[in-house]
Amino acid sequence: MIPGLDPNKMQQMLKQLGMKMEELSSSKVIIKRKEGDIVIENPQVIKTTMKGQIVYQVSGSVQEDSFSEDDIKLVSEQTGVKDKEEIKKALTETKGDVVEAIMKLKG
Q1: Please, which residues bridge with residue 61 across strands?
Q2: Are 27 and 45 in contact, with CB atoms under 8 Å apart?
Q3: Which structural domain, as residue segments, surrounds residue 80?
Q4: What is the per-residue pLDDT across 42-95, written as a single tens digit (0 to 9) for each?
Q5: Could you give the CA distance from residue 34 to residue 90 in angstroms, rounded to a whole number?
Q6: CATH of the domain at 87
Q7: Phi, psi values for residue 94, rounded to 5°
Q8: Which end of the chain is flanked by fewer CB atoms within 10 Å, N or C?
């Protein structure tokens, strides 16, 4: 928040402005994208409600999963492996090389 300002006073000020803030306990936040997921482990999640609108603010250590769903699907189709985590592990070990990941899982 604002350095030097008492958190309780800040909450009172926000309440007077019609804002309600609530910290949500979360262990992981996943943002799904076509290009790959963004995973935030042990995030701080703040839910803010103002004038009927809800906004979620997420902060923490970000880990991008750079494998597209198409890559995962292709590896799965070619190898018969259905476990996404196993496929992602193979892609990670082969630095994203789809052909190498397929060969690794088939061998």
Answers
A1: 41
A2: no
A3: 69-106
A4: 999 999 998 889 999 999 988 766 678 888 999 999 999 999 999 989 998 888
A5: 19
A6: 1.10.8
A7: -100, 15
A8: C
